[in-house]
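Researcher: Please predict.
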Amino acid sequence: MKIAVTPHQFRSTFAIMLMLKQMNSIHARTLTHHKSESSFKRYALTGDGSGGRASFL
């Protein structure tokens, strides 16, 4: 069985994991290479994965 995984999904998962660990968003943005707070929030707005997903559906 093949599962399609994109770099975007890895980045989103990483951002969500950092926020669930309550990492400071400035440090998390540095690690994920997001330039703006708004683009970072798209990836890690909530821990249920809906932050980035809602923007693309």
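Model: The radius of gyration is 11 Å.
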